[in-house]
Specification:
The chain is mainly alpha-helical and 73 residues long. The protein has one domain. The protein is 51% helix and 11% strand. The protein is built from 3 helices and 2 strands, in the order αββαα. A hairpin with a 5-residue loop joins strand 1 and strand 2. The chain is elongated, with a radius of gyration of 18 Å.
Length: 73
């Protein structure tokens, strides 16, 4: 796909849509309201998106690392 988005918020909404389709194992259907329509079957979407084994980071972990960075200065 080669679609541009009006702003960062619109792009985040699109990424959330893709994430939900992967989580719910449903096809991706997207229409921007004027001229762009996409239908991607789940099987193709799942094999096209690169998934990683990244660990989730909590807000408390971020705060802790920032405090540690300030203390070690």
């Amino acid at each position: 796909m080669n679609e541009s988005f009006a702003d960062g918020t619109q792009f985040k909404i699109f990424l959330k849509l893709v994430h939900n389709c992967l989580e719910q194992k449903t096809d991706l259907n997207f229409f921007n309201g004027t001229d762009f329509l996409v239908h991607v079957p789940y099987k193709i979407l799942n094999s096209s998106v690169v998934l990683t084994n990244a660990q989730e980071v909590s807000a408390s972990d971020i705060v802790k690392s920032k405090i540690e960075a300030l203390v070690t200065r």
